[in-house]
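Exercise: predict the fold of this chain.
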Amino acid sequence: MRDAVEVFREFLRNHALRCTGERDEIVRALAASKKHFRIEDLVRDLTARGMIASRATVYRTIPLLVQAGLVRVAESVPGAEYTYEYVYGQEHHDHLFCVRCGHHIEFENETIERLQDQIARDNEFVLIGHRLDLYGLCRDCSERLERGESITIPGHAEEQAAD
């Protein structure tokens, strides 16, 4: 597999955009961490590592990384600030997102994959990809609700356990 920095540099050249050391550093940092991130978290991580990349450069680079296929938008909670995920060279997986605390779980399930393929075939649809994000409450948030604690879910009225 080709190096992510070289893949991104090729994308930039093909789109008549500048290849810079700062952009290279951003790609290397993402490839090393391979975790979900918010742009501000990435800026802090880069600064903590002593990497030289301005906030503006990071904000301008992330959409380019999405276009290049190295990163994808991974919205953890509907309506909340976007999170992103480094995907270059990663195996396909799906997500469970807690709508209260933002905790996420990555999972693979062959039964779901086969079912999606079958649905596509049944509808005479050529499937070239998919994204499955399931939203709900993680174990900790569910237990809090079961104990009768009120919890706040963004975009919903305060929830309380049923009596």
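Check your answer against the key: The longest strand covers residues 94-98.
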